[in-house]
Amino acid sequence: VTELNRTIHEPARLQIVILLSGVKEAGFLYLLHESGLTKGNLASHLAKLEEVGYIEIGKSTGPGTGGTIIRLTPSGARAFKEYKTTVRKLLE
Amino acid sequence: MAQAMGLDEGRRRAILHDNEDGLGEIVLGSVMLLSGVIGITLATRGGFFGGILPMAPFFGLLWALKPLKARIAFPRTGYVALPEPSKRSRAIQMLPFFAIAIATSAFPFLQHRANAFPFGLSLLFTGIFIVGAFQYRMWHLFFPACAALGTAVWIWTLGVGGGGMIWLVFAPVGTALLLSGALRLVLFLRRYPKPA
Q1: Which pLDDT belongs to residue A51?
Q2: Is A30's CB within 8 Å of B82's CB?
Q3: Fewer CB atoms near the end CB (10 Å): N or C, chain B?
Q4: Comparing C-alpha atoms, which of B23, B19, B18, B74 is closest to residue A68?
């Protein structure tokens, strides 16, 4: 039986990864706005994703960016691609 | 609580989010309208400035949009940077312009109509807006699509054309984009008041 990546499979984290997969980088407020998660919940899931190296959290000094910038790492993008392949195989 | 979301929905969500404020349409519409007005005014003069000056407002796109987004949209709904388009998608975007050029040179009856190129460009804009409307479910794009189609019909039936009249297309399409963007911006500002 093919194993699903449990880090990504959790619904809130999957949503974050999906949102980040479509952008170059995004602010915390964008993820908050699009995911519908609470600030605390979003922050804890981001910390978990950062811990496994799937996302990078940095600071931006650009105007209006809100300070915190989040982007998917190449490792995160690869993990998400593999996750999608696995899910599609399971559904076939 | 997490919302239901398709696995490939990230890019579409980002594009919808990026266009929700109407600022892109306002800036692009203003630039097109300004280019159209300058182009039509200089159409009879021709020469170097007649060809170059109408293009000048397009440089405004590079610096006007980002500061507006940073001031109006990002503090309300968050910062997002879309990925750079790939070489393949850039090439695909250029294809219709080549198609018009090939069509006008391949079919003699098109060459004899001075309005063939403005007509083709109007149809091209119509197609782009309709494809965008269906691709990203941005139904408001039917408004500039109708403006572009109306311009095409007007150009073809009345035989409007001649040197520099390519810019004639830009004015109505730009106005439609500007109006559509302004309405969307008002709705956006009502929906998302400035955070304290």
Answers
A1: 94
A2: no
A3: C
A4: B74
Asked if A79 has any chain B CB less than 8 Å from its own CB, the reply is no
**How do residues B81-117 score in pLDDT, each as one tens digit?**
888 777 777 777 667 666 656 665 666 555 556 677 7
What b/e string do you get for B77-93 counting C-beta neighbours within 10 Å, with b at 16 or more? bbbbbeeeeeeeeeeee
Chain A CB contacts of B6 below 8 Å: 18
- Inter-chain residue contact B10 with A21, CB threshold 8 Å: yes
- pLDDT at residue number A14: 93
Measured CA to CA, the distance from residue B107 to residue B53 in angstroms comes to 31
Cα–chain-centroid distance for residue B114? 24
Do residues B113 and B161 touch, judged by C-beta distance below 8 A?
yes
Tell me the ipTM for this assembly: 0.85
Cβ of A65 within 8 Å of Cβ of B71? The answer is no
Query: Is some CB atom of chain B closer than 8 A to the CB atom of A36?
Result: yes
- Residue of chain B whose alpha carbon sits nearest to that of A38: B1
Residues A23, B80: C-beta atoms closer than 8 Å? yes
Query: Which pLDDT score is estimated for B167?
Result: 77
The distance of Cα B54 from the centroid of its chain, to the nearest Å, equals 15
Residue B168 CB partners (closer than 8 Å, separation 6+): B36, B39, B40, B118, B151, B155, B160
A:B CB pairs within 8 Å: 99
What digits encode the pLDDT tens for the residues B132-164?
Answer: 899 888 899 999 999 999 998 988 887 766 656
How much is the mean pLDDT over chain A? 89
Residues of B in contact with A35 (CB under 8 A): 2-3
CA–CA dist A16, A11 (Å, integer): 9
